[in-house]
Design a protein that fits this description.
Creatine Amidinohydrolase, Chain A, domain 1; 13 helices; Creatine Amidinohydrolase; alpha+beta; 2 domains; single chain; about 500 residues
Amino acid sequence: MKFHQLPLRQLERHLKPHSKPFSPQLPRSLSTPSYPPRLLSQSSTCVGSRWNSRFARAYSTVIPASNLLFGQPVHETHPHLLAAGELTPGITAQEYHERRAALCQSLPPDSAVLLPSATLKYRSGAVFYPFRQESNFLYLTGFSEPDSLAVLKRTGDKFGDYTFHLYCRPKDPKAEQWNGPWSGVDAARDVWNADEAGDIGRVESLLADALNGVKKIFTDADLTKYGVPTKFGNLVRSAAPNATTAPLKSHVNVLRAVKSPAEIANMRKAGQASGRALTEAMRRPWKYEKELAAFLEYQYQMSGLDGQAYIPVVAGGPKALLIHYVLNNGTLNDSEFVLVDAGGEYGTYITDITRTWPVSGKFTQAQKDLYNAVLRAQRSSVSLCRASANVTLDKLHQITENALRDQLQQLGFTLSGDAMGLLFPHHVGHYIGLDVHDVPGYPRNVVLKEGHCITIEPGIYVPDDERWPKAFRGLGIRIEDSVCVDDDSPLILTTEAVKEVDDIEALRD
């Protein structure tokens, strides 16, 4: 695979050998009418960990690199968002290379990976939703544009023996005038380190060469629909008619499930800022759910986050019994709880927090009793989020349910039959990362180890039914933190969101 860095100080220079692949860097100035042409190179392939490349540029005029436009932030245009060498906030080009190398090494010889990008989705007519890249594509490339295809091909047995092809939209000044900038084919090579890059509009004529010699293709793209080959399925069949296909997801999940220090740092930033926003929200009286929701989104943006990780739940009173209530259009009454399930995102990594507090700022005795029952169970389960505890998510769920059962019985609940399933209807947690429910399909019976990041979110939702003690009817409480599993202790990513009764009440003093 090729992994190179553009010159920093001169328009023409020789790159010296380096001891290991390193991160890309645009020159401080580039000459081009629209976008810098591809570096001229005799060889741009990594040999072992050293390489023999000679690069040169020859231009007629010079413009600052910071004036160039890309389809996403890069360090030269957005130094306030990305450090040198990063392709996305906090994540370096080196880390993206290592992800690709690890995936390819885990696959059999003569195999390849096909990763189509997400597509731009439209609300109506020409009005589109904000673009969100397909998570596995993003995890392996750092490239955040639609209409793209990444191809990884295993080329040997050593770590790093792979080629990376990236097909995307070429630069088009007229289209970009209307739709905003995109990065183009040259940037796919020079910034995102593709060994080969090409026009996505010509992929039908280019893909066969990329898949030459491949016997097995791993992809999660739909190759058929209703028993009929899709357009992408026909493309794959034409490019590699003798290759078999297999799902990719489980192979990437193994990598994504265990977070790197850089990923954890991004999640901690998201958790810290989101936790502070929730604590600040608890200080204030609120009359409407939508005002509280808007306040949180504003706080995320003002604290440096990218925005909301998901549509929040802001549920006043009995609406808290609706697990994913997101209308957020009701009133908030002083005599009731408000349940808020919300979190922000930083560098494409999310956080997930739920807090429940009295709208008035002061707990009634019944509210305090039921709240503390949930809190005790939550604290106990969080303490087990360590590798030395040798637990799985499913085991944590059993432990949490048993703890809730004991607490509820002490409060006078009769818990025969399906009682716990009604009062605690969801799982205690899920994996988190690039997605709110991360690594879909990754089993919950895997023993948690260092680097796993999960939520712990017990909840009790008491219907207005004579089966339950009268004082607690209509109360819905969930307490959730994002937690990273460490060896001997949990790392709570969202600790800034207060949750003790005394701390919540003190916010209004």
